Amino acid sequence: QVQLVESGGGLVQPGGSLRLSCVASGRILSINSMGWYRQAPGKQRELVASITGRGSTGYADSVKGRFTISSDSDKKTVYLEMNDLRPEATAVYYCNSDVRTNPLPGSSRAYWGQGTQVTVSS
Fold first, then answer.
1. How far apart are CA 44 and CA 8, in angstroms?
2. pLDDT > 90? residue 74
3. How far apart are CA 97 and CA 104, in angstroms?
């Protein structure tokens, strides 16, 4: 049992900032990576930002320079700092984690949170 819980979504004006949080809990041996995805109505879910267990980060071109992903030292909490938000960022944001639950090969799998709504509007 692994659970991911997102928080921090809400309504923000264009140009504003928002910080999302995701907490992983349950039977976790190690976390290979965590990431933030978003999905707008009628559109495919897309990767926004990711971070590995060693701290290596990656971003979608559309958010580079404005969004920052980070994690706590225990690597079970991940954040997404979103600055200079634009209406195009309106979507449900989902936390994803690639988790290893035991030492056996092939034990890793991806888990998803329930999502948190971000709305950028004036």
1. 22
2. no
3. 18
Are residues 116 and 92 in contact, defined by beta-carbon separation less than 8 angstroms? yes
Write out 27-77 in H/E/C secondary structure.
CCCEEEEEEEEEECCCCCCEEEEEEECCCCEEECHHHCCCEEEEECCCCCE
Q: CA separation (Å) from 17 to 9, 44, 46, 49, 101?
A: 11, 24, 20, 16, 35
Single out the residue of 52, 39, 41 nearest to residue 114, CA to CA. Answer: 39
Q: What does the alpha-carbon distance between residue 107 and residue 78 come to, in Å, rounded to a whole number?
A: 22
Q: What whole-number distance in Å separates Cα of residue 52 and Cα of residue 40? A: 25
Average pLDDT of the chain, as a whole number: 95
Q: % helix / strand / coil in the chain, to the nearest 5?
A: 5, 55, 40
Structure tokens at 94: 């989902």
What is the number of other CB atoms lying within 10 angstroms of the CB of residue 84? 13
| Predicted confidence band of residue 3 (pLDDT cuts 50, 70, 90) | very high
d(CA 35, CA 67): 12
